[in-house]
Design goal:
2 copies of one chain form a homodimer. Chain A is built from 12 helices and 8 strands. By secondary structure, chain A is of the alpha/beta class. Chain A has one domain: TIM Barrel (Alpha-Beta Barrel), CATH 3.20.20.70. Chain A has an 8-stranded parallel beta barrel, surrounded by 7 helices. In chain A, helix 3 packs across helix 12 and helix 10 packs across helix 12. The longest helix of chain A is centred in the last third of the chain and has 28 residues.
């Protein structure tokens, strides 16, 4: 017996509100100084800013992604802010991706799955690293079967170092990331949601357009988490290529949203929390509209 | 300017006390029932048991490894126990490996490095996943340069799923794990500690003896973190092959130490915390002596 798959809900969220995933990689330095000054501790300022950001973008974003590294770096208070951020997003009826990139096996993997699919750190999706092999996904999969939760597995990222291992050509054909994609495709085939995607998708960064188009075509059943928009140099056209008719993926931006206030005309020292949230909202809308326009242009040109 | 390398200290610890790494993957279920019953919360029982285990093994173990997944699964209280466990080990003058298997890039990797190389979760070593490439190691390396800290990067593990990706043959020759080993060897060559090892070693599981011997021979400058002893089926002879003259690696056991009390003759219900710690100590000594004997046998036979 399956509960409603989160991946189906994510597809419907993209249909309803566009493909932008708001990345809450909230460093204290991204909080406007006026707000920062109100709080004794970094994690308190981050919590205040996160609430304002969620409020301001909840109706224009598909979902949220919370990068746990920023919260781990603030200690127990940071992890409390992480838990509250996840809870707030879920209470607002939105899906949250815990960007944790965990990857371990057996009992340890089961403990990680328990940590991030239930309890105070409960998320709807997680990101996972495939290096140790497909058995590292098993404990997460058993939650998926019970609760419909999902994951995005690192496949083809867009950092320079991806050439070191992900991009290595295999003797059996294809690159390492293709082998990861093949195994995820096999997994997806065991059960597709009503919109045609498996519960476990892939992290695929913006890359050269020809390669991106080939990846999208080959992985019809994989929902993509697409990072690298904005701060990492991607553009709407690149993201549109990794989508399938404007869906089948969410496009994450973090810093360009969180720090949108730094490019406003007024003095940084005078920016309030709500000014910053409003700037974030505008950035999300601009990004959503640019991606939608790129999708339309692509479709119109019959590519 | 380098401070004293932790990897040199680890080598000296193995020389002084043998190669056993005590793995504190402490689930509540591993705490004897009599002790468990004293505490309202799982993480309190784990904290009590960890203190007893550290006390009982501090003079017979090379170092400790703490698997963060078990603590994440217990929420904020669990992470508080994790922090206190690390601090206690360091205050006792012992080295601690944070088994976190993180792997991310750029600012995110820098946040993870900050989280686990300073602050309340400060460890001497971490474990890392190489999938995204060598640039995922950079922020950790900059700590190494300042503080002498080190890491063990996943290379060749011994779970069945390791065949999925780690074991893939590359078009350019060797397997994926060889490519990881090559890059780590290059990195080690940029600076070796006084005992001949780089600050970043590798996680290498017990495997077929021929392959293990080849890996050891090829990776002279990499210190190994060797899991899979005991509960995962390895043996002293297998571990000895991955060591270099009885050093150059630490051999981790977790469950077989933590749960040693379950094989004692007396009723489980009557086992005290100090009985369990004493059983753990005996297991560590037996393991240490078995590995030392296997090392001597190997050397004696001129292999």
């Amino acid at each position: 017996m399956y509960s409603i798959d989160k991946i189906d809900k994510l597809y419907e969220a993209v249909d309803a509100r566009g493909p932008v995933c708001v990345g809450l990689d909230t460093a204290e330095a991204y909080v406007p100084p006026l707000e920062r000054r109100k709080w004794a501790r970094d994690y308190q300022a981050v919590w205040a800013y996160n609430q304002a950001l969620i409020d301001a973008t909840v109706d224009v974003a598909a979902c949220f992604k919370v990068q746990i590294a920023y919260y781990e770096a603030m200690g127990l208070g940071g992890l409390d802010t992480y838990a509250k951020t996840l809870r707030t997003i879920r209470e607002r009826g939105r899906l949250v991706i815990a960007d944790i990139k965990r990857g371990d096996i057996a009992d340890t993997a089961a403990q990680y799955a328990k940590a991030h699919f239930e309890g105070i750190f409960e998320a709807d999706f997680v990101t996972l690293s495939p290096y140790m092999g497909m058995d590292s996904l098993d404990p997460w999969l058993s939650y998926t079967r019970r609760t419909g939760k999902g994951a995005f597995v690192l496949m083809r990222t867009s950092n320079p170092g991806m050439r070191d291992f992900e991009y290595q050509e295999l003797k059996s054909g294809g690159r390492l990331y293709d082998a990861v994609g093949d195994r995820l495709t096999e997994l997806a085939a065991t059960r597709l949601g009503k919109h045609g995607y498996g519960a476990f998708g892939a992290v695929v960064g913006c890359t050269e357009r020809e390669e991106a188009a080939a990846i999208r075509k080959k992985r019809e059943t994989l929902f993509f988490l697409i990072p690298g928009y904005g701060a990492q140099g991607g553009a709407a056209e690149d993201a549109a290529i990794l989508l399938k008719n404007g869906n089948g993926g969410v496009v994450n931006a973090s810093r360009s949203i969180l720090k949108a206030w730094t490019t406003e005309a007024q003095e940084a020292a005078a920016v309030t929390c709500s000014d910053a949230a409003e700037a974030a909202r505008k950035t999300v809308i601009t990004m959503r509209d640019a991606i939608r326009a790129a999708v339309t242009a692509k479709t119109g040109a019959c590519h």
